[in-house]
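stuck on this chain:
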Amino acid sequence: MTTVNSRSRRVTGNAGEFAAADFLKRLGYKILERQYRFNHGEIDVVARDGGEIVFVEVKTRRSERFGRAEESVTPKKQELLRRTAEGYVEEKKCLNVPCRFDVVAVQVRNGKAEITHFKNAF
């Protein structure tokens, strides 16, 4: 059974991913996939920026009570993202395409999303 809190977090997370994808589109990125899953990992947004494939981790927060959103992309999370990205590259047969990892932090304040983009974050 889903609790109100986990449902609320999912809604917040999905809204943050939508805002991040819209933000990236306005920067000229082409969104290739959303919520790409491979084994036990998920990449929130896979995009193309010029000649690069960009794997984007989106972190959304309604408060900074537990720290800033980008601080939650720990080395353990980064390793999971790397393994998931390797799966994407193999599955899509794009082994010779340059790739990078970005983080998009979405802070919700007064119903508005404040977005911070960390290009080539790790």
